[in-house]
């Protein structure tokens, strides 16, 4: 009787243990499936050949390669499955520790056998994760990374042992250098005429997403690899007044990051050899938003390529603004901030290639900032100008252009008749 009773208990315990194991496995399988994303690559008139591509994700520490594949677009669409579960766990942990969080950024880069290269960023959202992402790759115009015949005198000394087979070729891609620096960047500059005074108010709303453009240089061109969409569990605000003819600035601390990835391969006796150099803002600190009549040392505005004429305004009362601009009337969800000061640091340290540094200076490279995500505003600003009644003023604000246009919160006024 006791034996039968013990056997029944053992069977019951075994059944509960099996159910628990099945439940845990079901949770992990379901959790894994929840973050699985299918990347679908479509052929185009520009790309109907085999592509060798690498997939990287933006982790709290920087870009991390998670997959690679060879896809023959001459035969139609190609697919690649990736999983974002580890990425989600990493950002959940980062938010718990530091209050910094980020939406998913997928960076797809690579080349063809003919030497054409491509890079593309794909931005997704955790609360509405797209399970299937279709994309069309486009080559960088005028760029070719095919470097001739592989010979005994032309080898990748640091990576020969790391080469791995990939559909008939031997491929290597690795992070070979990186550098970070936390520094102040200017968000706003006001340069009023001798009769204009006013105020400027700048705010970051807690836990709202700000997208910072990821700049990448390959061989001879700077281009975009999407936006790094970061949010912070902190607030930031500065309200300042400036006197007649008194310049005024608002600044914030950010963390810049530089990465250099080396891509080397050999296919059919021919060599592929190039670098991907990334510059982006890895983090920002809203609690450091502040302002004054002198900028922080080493901070600067991005280069201004044109001035948008806002119009001629005449003051009707000395206690009423003759001109006012807010985020709601800005006409864009973007603004530009500087990248060249960080590049000058990289150049002095011998980090960035001279080709990348010179090209950045030539085009006036900046960081494009997207401060509206899913219709939610992250940065808000309010600028107002006053003068004595009867005085007229012309108002302008700046615009920057590198390979894209973006407005700059840099205002100038001129006294006019």
* Number of DSSP strand runs: 26
Mean pLDDT: 92
How many domains? Answer: 1
Describe the oligomeric state of these chains in a short phrase.
single chain
Molecular structure report:
The chain is 16% helix and 53% strand. It is α+β, with helices and mostly antiparallel strands. The protein has one domain (35-416). Strands 5, 9, 10, 11, 13, 14, 16, 17, 18, 20, 21, 25 and 26 form a 13-stranded mixed sheet that branches. Strand 22 (372-373) and strand 23 form a beta hairpin. Helix 3 packs antiparallel against helix 4 (354-363). The longest helix has 33 residues, at 2-34. The radius of gyration is 27 Å and the shape is globular.
Topology diagram in text:
Blueprint: H1 2-34, E1 36-42, E2 50-59, E3 62-72, E4 78-83, H2 85-98, E5 100-102, E6 105-112, E7 117-123, E8 132-136, E9 146-149, E10 164-166, E11 169-191, E12 197-204, E13 210-218, E14 221-232, E15 236-242, E16 248-267, E17 270-292, E18 306-314, E19 323-326, E20 334-338, H3 340-349, H4 354-363, E21 366-370, E22 372-373, E23 376-377, E24 379-386, E25 392-401, E26 405-416
Parallel strand pairs: 1-8, 11-26
Antiparallel strand pairs: 1-4, 2-3, 2-6, 5-14, 6-7, 9-17, 10-11, 11-16, 12-15, 12-24, 13-14, 13-17, 13-21, 16-17, 18-25, 19-24, 20-21, 22-23, 25-26
Helix pairs in contact: 3-4
